[in-house]
Specification:
181 residues; Transcription Regulator spoIIAA; five-stranded mixed β-sheet
Length: 181
């Protein structure tokens, strides 16, 4: 009887693990297919270079937290490169928040599917550090409405992301001491 219970527990654990693996594979396939479709529709968009990151994005670390200052053009490259910077740094494990300051963006070269890709990548990255808050700072009505629409879709996930009109209000939500403002 005890062996049967142990075996049932092992089978149940295996089913859960396989379901999680399948979900990760499914997410990867979705992202890969979406990125391929985007690159085919937008041949000028290079998904594998830092060309736009160097020109339009600055980032700074506040202790173990990251603030991206995006200027000029906002596109998927900027978000992909930000994701690379985030995940490739050992401070990610100790991070409490990240902020994307979009207040100085002059040109939005971003489609609705690309915003979904960004938020999906963000949500999957947070599997490794579930306490990270993400602040998006923008006063552009179009951009705010896109992010609000997708954040509504992601409300059932562990993604802790909000949109703010000012950097100060975002940092207040992230509970950063005044010395960093």
């Amino acid at each position: 009887m005890k062996l049967s219970t142990t075996l049932q527990n092992l089978v149940k654990a295996l089913k859960i693990s396989l379901t999680r693996i399948f979900n990760h594979i499914n997410t990867f396939c979705f992202l890969f297919n979406t990125l391929i479709r985007i690159s085919l529709k937008r041949p000028g968009l290079s998904l594998l270079t830092q060309q736009n990151m160097n020109k339009t994005t600055k980032y700074k670390w506040l202790n173990n937290n990251l603030i991206f200052e995006i200027e000029d053009t906002l596109n998927l490259n900027v978000f992909l490169e930000a994701n690379n910077i985030l995940l490739s740094n050992s401070r990610f494990d100790k991070m409490n928040f990240q902020a994307f300051n979009l207040l100085n963006v002059k040109n939005i070269d971003l489609t609705v599917p690309e915003i979904r890709v960004f938020l999906t990548l963000l949500e999957k990255a947070m599997i490794w550090n579930k306490t990270v808050k993400t602040a998006i700072i923008s006063s552009d009505p179009k951009l705010v409405s896109y992010f609000e629409m997708f954040l509504n879709e992601f409300r059932w996930t562990s993604l802790n992301c909000k949109i703010f009109e000012t950097l100060d209000s975002a940092l207040d939500w992230c509970e950063i001491e005044n010395e960093f403002k």
